[in-house]
Amino acid sequence: MPVICPVTDLETRLSEITKVVHETNEPVFLTNKGYGDMVVMSMNIWEEMNFENEIYQKLIEAQAEAQSNPKRLSHNEVFDPIRQKINNYIKAAVPPNVAFCLKTFLA
Fold first, then answer.
1. How do beta strands 35-40 and 28-32 pair?
2. Can you tell me the distance from the alpha carbon of 59 to that of 51, in angstroms, rounded to the nearest whole number?
3. Helix crossing, 96-106 with 75-93: angle to 10°?
4. What pLDDT score was predicted for residue 25?
5. Is the dihedral of CA 83, 85, 86, 92 positive or negative?
6. DSSP per-residue codes, 65-80
7. Which has the closest alpha carbon to 5: 50, 23, 25, 15?
8. pLDDT tens for residues 50-86?
9. 27 vs 48: CA distance, rounded Å
10. Three-state secondary-structure class, residue 82
11. Quick check: pTM over 0.70?
């Protein structure tokens, strides 16, 4: 159940509001003259919400891109060039015994 307080409680009950926000991981809704005015939440919850919103926005962008571009790539069309670059790097820069382990892992 949401916690709803008048905004004036920030002055008199700030420590209680802070405790509720951190212990429940839920926001506290503040009203001004009976109407919703502000929301107080922990920084961790805000960061999680912001991260989720960023992911959601990227998914929306990706969906729009997919709808506007009819070209589709197979799994191999995407990953074969990447594997080739990794294998070239392994051949050029990695000692043979380590290269064997990496090739086995990447196969």
1. antiparallel
2. 12
3. 170
4. 93
5. positive
6. HHHH------HHHHHH
7. 15
8. 999 999 999 999 999 989 998 889 999 999 999 898 8
9. 13
10. helix
11. no
Half-sphere exposure of 28 (CA within 13 A, CB side): 21
For residue 57, CA distances in Å to 48, 52, 65, 77 come to 14, 9, 12, 26
Q: How far apart are CA 62 and CA 68, in angstroms?
A: 10
| Integer Cα distance of 18 and 5 in angstroms | 12
Contact yes or no for 50/60 (Cβ under 8 A): no
**Contact status, residue 32 vs residue 7, Cβ threshold 8 Å:** yes
- Dig out the tokens for 33 from the structure: 């003259």
Tokens read off for 40: 């107080």
